[in-house]
Automatic annotation (TrEMBL), chain A:
It comes from the Bacteria. SMART domains: EAL, GGDEF, PAC, PAS. Residues 409-652 form the EAL domain. SUPFAM superfamilies: EAL domain-like, Nucleotide cyclase, PYP-like sensor domain (PAS domain). Pfam families: EAL (PF00563), GGDEF (PF00990), PAS (PF00989). Residues 116-187 form the PAS domain. Residues 270-400 form the GGDEF domain. Gene3D superfamilies: 3.30.70.270, EAL domain (3.20.20.450), PAS domain (3.30.450.20). This is Diguanylate cyclase. Residues 191-243 form the PAC domain. GO terms for biological process: regulation of DNA-templated transcription.
UniProtKB/TrEMBL annotation, chain B:
This is S-adenosyl methyltransferase. It holds the Pfam family Methyltransf_19. It comes from Lentzea alba. SUPFAM superfamilies: S-adenosyl-L-methionine-dependent methyltransferases (SSF53335). It comes from the Bacteria.
């Protein structure tokens, strides 16, 4: 047989016994080379077969079968021997290689294991969570310091061999054991729970528990891992938030909201009494001594009221800046009011300031059961306003009838800003009459709204904060109107009189406002008379002086004839005082006193005017007592009506009829 | 599915036989241990033709790689490459073009360590230790190796390994993930045991491997067809090992080949 044919037969036989990673052509060529080499170098052919990977269990056998027809036995024996040797060496090489691979793999696994263990240890040690690994009997195999801290021990080592269930609340042991069992039996992967642990010192601590299984390499469960999170702080924080929601942060007393719920809870079933306290003159403390002192004072008041409430089994709350509330059951109002005042009246020293304390108190006693808490709070507040109006250290029982009237007034006050905006508040002009000459001295500009008098309207404006803007508006509009009259009627135009409210009278912008009004309207200053509220002058305000220095004639409104008022008249340059006293009947014992008072005013060079004189009879009484002028004899008129009158005639004042 | 709490990695146990070393033994290699050989003997009892099947499978790998090289593929991702034995992909491919890149993927510690030994000083081939049933991790690591450019066609190989992927691992999704990661014109080389051929022997093999670390899941032809979703099968389709583009005339018996082979081209 030719060698190429032999090589092909050999190739076919060999490739059925072993995988030789070459193409058939390549294998055939390699085998042909081997056949040529074989007689001289049978050993190298043996090595080549192994290196070609013709190393199947039957590879040598088929080789001998194919070659035995063409080659001598000694040659084939040498080939076989070399093949066997090469196989051994190859096997050694491969075993060596796989051994190195194993060693490397092991090293890598061990390294990973070490890193992993180190990582685990780091997590275990530094976790904020308490972690315990327990055996199935519940004994700690390992526990970290965080867990020790939670249960009140020094270190994780102290937990070693301890039974974790020792720290469970006795009531929880049975149900927790059941949960652990479920995890172990594979019913659940893990369980989480919120429980109370009992610390080593016996104190309870709230925790979140998370429990799962540890398994070995075969996946068999071996241990429990219990993670423990201390949530007591959360608990405390939650409780503190609840407390903050219901309590006043400064004094620690219940706040308004909390108090209202307490009232709600009791009003239906109990004979309750509600006391609404407003500290007298607290704003004086705050403004005069500063807010810090004010806060200290509030704390002192709170402490005293709390003590009193404890004694009376009452509920106390701070329900506003300087307002407190007390809720008692089956109480005697007068004695409680006294107790409150006594408690507050103890001398109080704050930052070396001795402060006298008292409160005004509004009381709602045993309201009907169907009253709502909000309604009760409002009634108590209304009673407090009433008490305050009476002066310091007063108290008032809520009166449902009086309340209805006040509410009407408040409703009116509430609608005032809208009314003003919509032009419903008008300016009207009332004549000022000289009692001696019966001439019209001028016109007083007044507000007219609904059925309210000027003074009621101003008082309402005061309570809504509108008095300043309305007062400024009145000043400007009236000046403009007066200027038009001056322009049209010259000397025949009435002098403008303006009576300012209390707030505007002491407004520091007043002088500027007056000057601007005069400048802008062109009204000559001598055609304007400004009546300031006398209380502003008594309080030491210098608007009257500055206006006088600016050439504007001033009057003081609200004169009562007190000593302090008379004193002011000696110091402040005013033209007139205005009173609203009832007319002194000549038969009255007061008649002479009034005459003397008017004489005294005159002696200071000041004229005496009277407002709200509506009958000629009263006017006559005033005249005889010495007064100089009156307002109110004729109804106030709108500007257009005044203009009409002025146009018709520069007429004499109407005769008394 | 209950998740294992693995706070320590499992150790290395060479006493446990591995499919990779069993394969090596069947191919006549020496990279195996007594445990592997004992399992191989049981395997041979169940399937006496196992050595031939191993050889045929290895030969198919070679043909498949060379087919892909002929069609321009110059980068291979060999999933479940096992321990390097005769005729590794990079040897076959780089013989044709030394510039060819090969990334082997295996999860088994010894196979990985062994591959690293073999690949020392091989700049264009590497092994990454990942689980081929987790395509995202494999693709990520392959990208990081710098050897595979996913913008160019890739030869993805899963030869004699997919029968270790259990049905619950969602084999179609696994193949689809690799398919989606490579551009059109890429190839998938695939072979795995089937019960369509010699069902009795196959059942025996499944039984032998059931308790090993690598239980086997043979698949029918339609099941394998399903895995080639999005691929055009290359001629002659899904066939027993020796029938896939055979090199010579004298064929081994296809009915005893145990394994279906196929190559698909991504559409």
């Amino acid at each position: 047989m030719e060698l190429p044919d032999l090589a092909r037969r050999w190739m076919n036989a060999l490739t059925a016994t072993a995988y030789i990673p070459l193409s058939h052509a390549e294998i055939e060529q390699a085998l042909l080379d081997s056949l040529i080499e074989l007689p001289a170098e049978p050993e190298s052919v043996g090595y080549r077969l192994v290196s070609l990977h013709a190393t199947g269990p039957d590879s040598l056998q088929v080789t001998i079968d194919v070659l035995s027809s063409a080659f001598e036995l000694p040659v084939l024996a040498r080939l076989s021997s070399a093949y066997a040797q090469a196989m051994r060496m190859d096997a050694f090489d491969q075993q060596e290689q796989i051994k190195v691979a194993i060693v490397r793999a092991k090293q890598r696994v061990e390294r990973t294991l070490k890193v992993s263990q180190a990582r685990f240890q780091e997590v275990f040690d530094s976790a904020a969570l308490g972690i315990a690994i327990t055996d199935f009997a519940g004994r700690c195999v390992e526990a970290n310091d965080a867990l020790a801290e939670i249960v009140g021990l020094e270190s994780g080592a102290d937990l070693h061999e301890r039974d974790l269930t020792d720290f469970y609340h006795p009531d929880d042991v049975a149900s927790l054991s059941a949960s652990y069992r479920k995890v172990r039996e594979g019913h659940v992967d893990r369980f989480r729970d919120q429980r109370k642990l009992i610390r080593a010192d016996g104190e309870p601590v709230w925790v979140h528990l998370a429990v799962s299984l540890l398994r070995d390499a075969d996946g068999e469960p071996t241990h429990f891992v219990t993670m423990v999170e201390d949530i007591s702080e959360l608990h405390l924080l939650q409780r503190s938030l609840d407390h903050q929601l219901l309590h006043d942060s400064l004094t620690g007393l219940s706040n308004r909201q909390h108090f209202v719920t307490q009232v709600e809870r009791r009003v239906e079933s109990d004979p309750i009494t509600l006391y609404h306290l407003g500290l007298d003159a607290f704003s004086v403390v705050n403004n005069g001594l500063g807010h810090e002192t004010g806060d200290k004072l509030l704390k002192i008041v709170a402490a005293r009221l709390r003590k009193l409430a404890d004694e009376k089994k009452a509920i106390v709350a701070r329900i506003g800046g300087d307002e407190f509330a007390l809720l008692t059951i089956a109480d005697n109002v007068t004695s409680t009011v006294e107790e409150i005042q006594d408690a507050l009246a103890e001398p109080t020293f704050v930052d070396d300031h001795g402060i006298a304390l008292s409160a005004s108190i509004g009381v709602v006693d045993r309201p009907p059961a169907f009253t709502t808490a909000a309604e009760l709070m409002r009634c108590a507040n209304a009673a407090l306003r009433q008490a305050k109006a009476r002066g310091k250290r007063q108290w008032a029982l809520h009166d449902p009838h009086d309340d209805a009237r006040r509410r009407g007034r408040y409703a009116l006050a509430a609608s005032m800003p809208g009314a003003w905006e919509h032009g419903e508040i008008e300016i009207v002009y009332a004549p000022v009459h000289d009692l001696e000459t019966r001439e019209v001295l001028g016109a007083v500009a007044r507000l007219h709204w609904e059925d309210l008098s000027h003074n009621d309207t101003m008082a309402l404006a005061d309570s809504t904060g509108l008095s300043l803007p309305i007062g400024k508006w009145l000043l400007r509009e009236a000046c403009a109107q007066a200027a038009r009259w001056v322009a049209e009627f010259g000397d025949g135009a009435p002098t403008l009189h303006l009576a300012l409210g209390a707030l505007q009278s002491r407004d520091e912008d007043l002088v500027g406002d007056v000057k601007r009004a005069l400048d802008e309207t062109g009204l000559p200053p001598e055609r304007l008379r400004i009546a300031l509220d006398i209380s502003s002058v008594l309080a030491g305000d210098d608007n009257a002086v500055v206006l006088h220095d600016s050439g504007i004639v001033t009057a003081l409104d609200g004169f009562h004839g007190g000593h302090d008022e008379l004193t002011v008249l000696t110091e402040v340059p005013v033209r007139t005082v205005i009173t609203r006293a009832p007319a002194p009947h000549p038969d009255s014992p007061l008649y002479q006193a009034m005459r003397d008072l008017i004489a005294a005013v005159h002696s200071f060079g000041v004229r005496f005017g009277v407002d709200e004189v509506h009958t000629l009879e009263d006017a006559e009484h005033w005249r005889s007592a010495g007064a100089d002028g009156v307002i109110g004899l004729l109804p106030a008129l709108a500007a257009a009506e005044v203009t009409d009158l002025l146009t018709k005639a520069v007429s004499p004042p109407p005769e008394a009829s | 599915m209950s998740e294992r709490v693995s706070w320590v990695p499992e150790g290395l146990d060479t006493g446990k036989p591995s499919a990779a070393r069993l394969y090596d033994y069947l191919l006549g290699g020496g990279h195996n241990f007594a445990g592997d050989r004992a399992l191989a003997e049981k395997f041979l009892q169940a399937q006496p033709n196992a050595r031939t099947i191993a050889r045929l499978n290895r030969a198919f790998l070679r043909r498949a790689v060379l087919f892909m090289m002929d069609h321009g593929i110059r980068q291979f991702l060999d999933l479940g490459s096992g321990i390097p034995t005769v005729g590794n992909v990079h040897e076959i491919a780089q013989k044709a073009d030394p510039e060819t890149h090969v990334v082997y993927v295996d999860f088994e510690e010894v196979a990985v360590a062994h591959s690293q030994l073999i690949l020392e000083g091989e700049p264009r081939a590497t092994i990454i230790q990942e689980d081929m049933t987790k395509p995202a991790a494999v693709l990520n690591a392959a990208e990081e190796s710098g050897l595979i450019d996913f913008g160019r066609p890739v030869g993805v190989l899963t030869v004699g390994v997919f029968h270790f992927v259990p049905p619950e691992a969602d084999p179609r999704a696994i193949v689809a993930a690799y398919r989606d990661a490579v551009p059109a014109g890429s190839y998938l080389g695939f072979s795995q045991f089937t019960q369509d051929l010699q069902p009795e022997e196959m059942a025996g093999v499944v039984e032998v491997m059931k308790k090993s670390q690598n239980p086997m899941f043979p698949r029918t032809k339609p099941e394998i067809e399903g895995l080639f979703d999005g691929f055009a099968l290359v001629e002659p389709g899904i066939v027993p090992l020796p029938l896939w583009q055979p090199e010579g005339a004298n064929l081994d018996d296809p009915d005893k080949a145990g394994i279906y082979a196929a190559v698909g081209r991504k559409l």
